[in-house]
UniProtKB/TrEMBL annotation:
Catalyzed reaction equations: 2-[(2R,5Z)-2-carboxy-4-methylthiazol-5(2H)-ylidene]ethyl phosphate + 4-amino-2-methyl-5-(diphosphooxymethyl)pyrimidine + 2 H(+) = thiamine phosphate + CO2 + diphosphate; 4-methyl-5-(2-phosphooxyethyl)-thiazole + 4-amino-2-methyl-5-(diphosphooxymethyl)pyrimidine + H(+) = thiamine phosphate + diphosphate; 2-(2-carboxy-4-methylthiazol-5-yl)ethyl phosphate + 4-amino-2-methyl-5-(diphosphooxymethyl)pyrimidine + 2 H(+) = thiamine phosphate + CO2 + diphosphate
Protein name per Swiss-Prot or TrEMBL: Thiamine-phosphate synthase
GO cellular component, one term: cytoplasm
Residues involved in 2-[(2R,5Z)-2-carboxy-4-methylthiazol-5(2H)-ylidene]ethyl phosphate binding: 133-135, 164, 184-185
Cofactor mode of binding and number, as noted: Binds 1 Mg(2+) ion per subunit.
UniProt keywords, alphabetically: Magnesium, Metal-binding, Thiamine biosynthesis, Transferase
Gene3D superfamilies: Aldolase class I (3.20.20.70)
Family: Belongs to the thiamine-phosphate synthase family.
Protein species of origin: Spirosoma endophyticum
Binding site for Mg(2+): 69, 88
Residues that, per the record, bind 4-amino-2-methyl-5-(diphosphooxymethyl)pyrimidine: 36-40, 68, 107, 136
Gene name of the encoded protein: thiE
Chain segments annotated as coiled-coil in the UniProt record: none
Cofactor(s) the record lists: Mg(2+)
């Protein structure tokens, strides 16, 4: 399975003329198998409704649906898992609420945060922020390829790099030893989310 991970953004999708379900369906049709529903402004009711709509799409394609931040929403729609960061609910609380079988992705921004994960049952890491990005305002400092390499060398957990990743830099990112890459604007913000996803998957399939 290719290791391209789509993190969604309704506003960026709309600016490019797409609804979010369209973006997710096109990405899945192109072969993306990790989808994260990330919404910062939606009401709980709208979040659940959108989550259920996306779940139908992801199930159709055999893709995973991960919910950003909201453990309650993930439980309510029986998603495949949740993604949390350093300012979200503490990891051990999330694990006890969501149970041993659901996936938990954890963002780390530096080596100290990686060390803290040692005794936890983390399913994958999101390593942020690799390059400057306009998509998220409250990012931690930029790791660059060097910082990413240092973190990858210290963990055997599956890890997705995120932040400013696009076709022109995806291969340099993969050479850092990361398992996969997560993108927002490189799919949501493109004229054709299908073609953009195909191109990224093609680049991921090339020898390093
Ligand atoms: C795959 C992936 N990696 C990192 C993040 C960032 O999570 P977090 O630090 O909690 O920030 P927000 O996304 O909640 O703004 C992510 N969402 N996905
Ligand atoms: C959610 C998130 N976490 C760290 S950077 C980021 C946004 C990445 O967006 P883009 O792929 O458009 O740079
Ligand atoms: Mg978060």
């Amino acid at each position: 399975m290719n290791q391209l991970y789509l993190v969604t953004d309704s506003a960026i999708s709309q600016q490019a003329g797409h609804s979010l379900p369209f973006v997710v369906a096109e990405a899945c049709r192109a072969g993306v198998r990790w989808i994260q529903l990330r919404e910062k402004q939606l009401s709980t009711r709208a979040f659940i409704e959108l989550g259920l709509e996306l779940k139908q799409i992801t199930q159709h394609y055999g893709a995973k649906l991960i919910i950003n931040d909201r453990i309650d929403v993930a439980l309510a729609i029986d998603a495949d898992g949740v993604h949390i960061g350093q300012d979200d609910m503490p990891f051990t609380m999330v694990r006890s609420l969501i149970g041993p079988d659901k996936l938990i992705g954890l963002s780390i921004n530096n080596e100290a945060e990686l060390q803290a994960t040692r005794h936890w049952h983390v399913d994958y890491l999101g390593i942020a922020t690799i390059f400057p990005t306009g998509t998220k305002q409250d990012t931690a400092s930029i790791l660059g390829i060097d910082g990413l390499q240092r973190i990858c060398a210290q963990t055997r957990l599956p890890a997705f790099a995120i932040g400013g990743i696009k076709a022109s830099n995806i291969q340099a990112v993969m050479q850092s030893g990361v398992t996969g890459v997560a993108v927002v604007s490189a799919i949501c913000g493109q004229p054709s989310p299908y073609e953009a996803s195909r191109e990224l998957i093609h680049l991921l399939s090339q020898p390093l």
